[in-house]
From TrEMBL:
GO terms for molecular function: G protein-coupled receptor activity. The keyword Membrane applies. Residues 891-913 are annotated as: Disordered. InterPro entries: ANF_lig-bd_rcpt, GPCR_3, GPCR_3_9-Cys_dom, GPCR_3_9-Cys_sf, GPCR_3_C, GPCR_3_CS, GPCR_3_mGluR4, GPCR_3_mtglu_rcpt. Keywords: Cell membrane, Disulfide bond, G-protein coupled receptor, Glycoprotein, Membrane, Receptor, Signal, Transducer, Transmembrane, Transmembrane helix. Pfam families: 7tm_3, ANF_receptor, NCD3G. One of its GO terms (cellular component) is plasma membrane. The chain crosses the membrane at residues 610-636, 648-668, 722-743, 774-795, 807-829, 849-871. This is Glutamate metabotropic receptor 6. The keyword Transmembrane applies.
Length: 913
């Protein structure tokens, strides 16, 4: 008895019930620990129970194509789409299914007719439909391994007692496929158990590069990690550093995005704003939610998209509904490529999209082959009739099937490309290259193992899978498009991509334009790119705009592409892109705060109001003082001049002159000499003036105090004594200044702190002498002591009759001077925080000194000059009075004071004293 199942049945259907089939898995080195459940299921499926067949002998007939040959290759193609509502298969896929599958048949025909490749050896095939579903493809691929499962048939006997005749299934040495990465992964796991090499023409998932898990898997297309590298290079070339990713749920989309994210992390410089996944079965409004989520990081205009055609279209539609045409800048993977279907009627939203596609070529020989196919000459393709109906939109008549009245009847005379549109599917080249790769590997193996043999020799029967894998990995030949076909150590083909951009303007019709290439490195022509509205400037997709000069980056934690810009304020400048540094004390930042520049140095200028006013007052004072001195010299022997005490008057006038002179030294440009004279003369003029006044008031006070007690005149009232006392008082000031010279030699300094306002543009360094506010006060302090002492004596001498010397004028002088200096102190110290401190303090000091000198000059000498010049008749000698008269006047003054009499005692003073 023989099995009635067809030769291409995946499993022999036996009629004896409840007999166990013993299994032996051939050459299963290193069985994977990942698939014990699969093996267990396979064991129970085949071995635990004999497959029961019903009385009607219904057998399992897989939809497959069997091409006889000496060596058989497997083929996995998505002839049909995924079926709806739990059905395994759906509608026919003309391009991705039929075109690719026919490319394998075409390649087999070419190889079998080529005397240079596998001469005298015919390649056959077993081609299966995966229905675009990984689980269904796994069931189908069991066909490839059944020949490796050796079955024990010793317990099986026919009714006549003879052993059964079971046709041995063909042995598949290698598999071409699959298309989808998820299908290839599922199939690769079982093929590796049986050491059957697999060469894919379209699976690009990066995880298939793992040579430990998928060691028998190779592919003639580059993995998506190369796509991801290409897309990253494009993003960097466009100057983007902040992009979002969008992936269709599934192996292709998720693996592609994962590869992009990993490569971008390793390379640095590009951050992922959002990583959004599109569900396998998106609900209503799902794509609108995706667009809203992408807009949460609206600066990330660049969107890296690994998605199928339907999802791409839905994303574009949602962007259009959200009125975001032109906002998103898509960078699409090869699933978008140069296809028109995802962007039809959505061209405005897709404008500017950059897409990549494996470098490919149209195979002219395949076009001629495929367009010559007909129902008569292509009976080996069991799905061709279905394709014919779909392609020509007609219906073939079959026995027992009623013709659909809505469809015309197929005549069989239709021709592909003439009565229907035809364009070669993009992966045809890679299908042909995959078949040729296995053929070249078998050819090399035959030359090594069967030298001189014209057919398959014993060394190649059976073909050892691991050996064949090594030969496949070693091939290097020019493929159908003229480019080399080779594999790296992981079984991956080199990456070769064309880069397209969808453009609408400046062309006769919108379309994809090649703008660059990628073969291990990027070559992108930015000048040929244009974006929404025909704009040729590259739009930005960055998290944070570059900081302006003078601003530092404050990084956002965890997002190296995002930062806040902070101005280097105050006196800081931008040291580097992350740091602000304070300028040295003698410098200030340049206007754009990228460096420091020297702070301008200023001094009190002669044309400044702060200098003009004091200088004018001082000049008037010097002229007035000079006039008094000249007048006194001219009328040196007149009674008024003699009565005023000529010697002390000249000393006092010298002091007044020096007080006026110090104004010019305070205004002059600081230098060593100027600073030395400032120290010397600042207090010297006042010391001379008030020393002379103190000597005068003290003399008057002592004379009248002595006169109250006795008729003996006090000591040291002669002019010589007065001069000596005065010079002794002056010498204290001079000695102090020279000690100061010895301790700290005079020098200039530049004060950068005094004029350092919040706005550095207004900062100035002030050239000044090394005299602090404290040192100025110390320099004047001795003069102030003399002034206060003189004032005390003036108060004590207030009762002296006015005819005796200058007691009252000196008193008025000192009162006024004290008022001037009391006003000086709060002004001087109250302006310490002012931006014009130096000018105000210098002006206040010089004006105060000029005013005090003017008070002394005006009250003590102007009345005398006035009498000398305008009333010479009063400048006559009066009768002399002795010290006795002074004593009498003092006693009368004392008596008058005690009796509190009104009026004044008229006693002529002795003006010759």
């Amino acid at each position: 008895m023989t099995s009635s199942g067809p030769a291409h049945s995946p499993l022999p259907h036996l009629h004896h019930h409840h007999h166990h089939i013993l299994l032996r898995i051939g050459r299963t080195s290193r069985p994977s620990s990942l698939w014990p459940c699969l093996l267990l299921s396979l064991w129970f499926w085949i071995g635990e129970e004999v497959i029961q067949v019903s009385a009607s002998h219904q057998h399992f007939h897989p939809h497959s194509i069997k091409i006889p040959g000496d060596i058989t290759l497997g083929g996995l193609f998505p002839i049909h789409a995924r079926g709806p509502h739990g059905l395994p298969c759906g509608e026919l896929k003309k391009e991705k299914g039929i075109h690719r599958m026919e490319a394998m048949l075409y390649a087999l025909d070419q190889i079998n007719s080529d005397p240079e490749v596998l001469p005298n050896i015919t390649l056959g095939a077993r081609i299966l439909d995966t229905c675009s579903r990984d689980t269904y493809a796994l069931e189908q691929s069991l066909t490839f391994v059944q020949a490796l499962i050796q079955k024990d048939t010793s317990d099986i006997r026919c009714s006549n007692g003879e052993p059964p005749i079971i046709r041995k299934p063909e042995r598949v040495v290698g598999v071409i496929g699959a298309s989808a990465s998820s299908v290839s992964i599922m199939v690769a796991n079982i093929l590796r158990l049986f050491e059957i090499p697999q060469v894919s023409y379209a699976s690009t998932a990066p995880e298939l590069s793992d040579n430990n898990r998928y060691d028998f898997f190779s592919r003639v297309v580059p993995p998506d990690s190369y796509q991801a590298q290409t897309m990253l290079d494009i993003v960097k070339a466009l100057g983007w550093n902040y992009v979002s990713t969008l992936a269709s749920e599934g192996n292709y989309g998720e693996s592609g995005v994962d590869a992009f994210m990993q490569i971008s992390r390793e390379a640095g410089g590009v951050c992922i704003a959002q990583s959004v996944k599109i569900p396998r079965e998106p609900t209503d409004g799902e794509f609108d939610k995706i667009i809203r989520r992408l807009m949460e990081t609206s600066n990330a205009r660049g969107v890296i998209i690994f998605a199928n055609e339907d999802d791409i279209r839905c994303v574009l539609e949602a962007a259009k509904r959200a009125n975001l045409t032109g906002h998103f800048l898509f960078v699409g993977s090869d699933s978008w490529g140069a296809k028109s279907s995802p962007i039809t009627e959505l061209e405005d939203v897709a404008e500017g999209a950059v897409t990549i596609l494996q470098k490919r070529a149209s195979i002219d020989g395949f076009d001629q082959y495929f367009m010559s196919r007909s129902l008569e000459n292509n009976r080996r393709n069991i799905w061709f009739a279905e394709f014919w109906e779909d392609d020509f939109r007609c219906k073939l008549t079959r026995p027992g099937i009623k013709l659909d009245p809505d469809k015309k009847k197929c005549t069989g005379e239709e021709r592909i490309g003439r009565d229907s549109s035809y364009e070669q599917e993009g992966k045809v080249q890679f299908v042909i290259d995959a078949v040729y790769a296995v053929a070249h590997a078998l050819h090399s193996m035959h030359q090594d193992l069967c030298p001189g043999s014209s057919g398959v020799c014993g060394n190649m029967d059976p073909v050892e899978g691991r050996s064949l894998l090594n030969y496949i990995r070693s091939v290097n030949f020019n493929g159908s498009a003229g480019t080399s076909v080779l594999f790296n150590e992981n079984g991956d083909a080199p990456g070769r991509y064309d880069i397209f951009q969808f453009q609408m303007t400046n062309h006769s019709h919108p379309g994809y334009r090649v703008i660059g290439q990628w073969t291990n490195n990027l070559r992108l022509n930015l000048d040929e790119m244009q974006w929404s509205g025909g704009d040729r400037s590259v739009p930005e997709s960055i998290c944070s705009f570059p900081c302006r000069p003078g601003e530092r980056k404050k990084m956002v934690k965890g997002v190296p592409c995002c930062w806040h810009c902070e101005l280097c304020d105050g006196y800081q400048y931008q040291l580097d892109e992350f740091t602000c540094e304070t300028c040295p004390s003698d410098m200030r930042p340049v206007p754009n705060r990228t460096a420091c520049r020297p702070t301008p140095i200023i001094k009190l200028e002669w044309n400044s109001p702060w200098a003009l006013v004091p200088a004018s007052l001082a000049m008037l004072g010097i002229l007035a003082t000079s006039a008094v001195v000249i007048t006194f010299i001219r009328f040196n022997d007149t009674p008024i001049v003699r009565a005023s005490g000529r010697e002390l008057s000249y000393v006092l006038l010298t002091g007044i002159f020096l007080i006026y002179l110090i104004t010019f030294l305070m205004i002059a440009e600081p230098g060593v000499v100027v600073c030395a004279f400032r120290r010397l003369l600042l207090g010297l003029g006042m010391a001379i003036t008030y020393s002379a006044m103190l000597t005068k008031t003290n003399r008057i006070y002592r004379i009248f105090e002595q006169g109250k007690r006795s008729v003996t005149p006090p000591k040291f009232i002669s002019p010589t004594s007065q001069l000596a006392i005065t010079f002794i008082l002056i010498s204290v000031q001079v000695l102090g200044v020279f000690v100061w010279f010895a301790v700290i030699p005079p020098h200039t300094t530049i004060d950068y702190e005094e004029l350092r306002p919040p706005n550095p543009d207004l900062a100035r360094g002030i050239l000044k002498c090394d005299m602090s506010d404290l040192s100025i006060i110390c320099c004047l302090s001795y003069s102030i002591v003399l002034m206060v002492t003189c004032t005390v004596y003036a108060v004590k001498s207030r009762g002296v009759p006015e005819t005796f010397n200058e007691a009252k004028p000196i008193g008025f002088t000192m009162y006024t001077t004290c008022i001037v200096w009391l006003a000086f102190v709060p002004i001087f110290f109250g302006t310490a925080q002012s931006t014009e401190k130096m000018f105000i303090q210098t002006g206040t000091l010089t004006v105060s000194m000029s005013l005090s000198a003017s008070v002394s000059l005006g009250m003590l000498y102007m009345p005398k000059v006035y009498v000398i010049i305008f009333h010479p008749e009063q400048n006559v000698q009066k009768r002399k009075r002795s010290f006795k008269a002074v004593v009498q006047a003092a006693r009368l003054s004392q008596k008058s004071s005690s009796e509190k009499q009104n009026g004044e005692t008229k006693i002529e003073p002795d003006r010759t004293q």
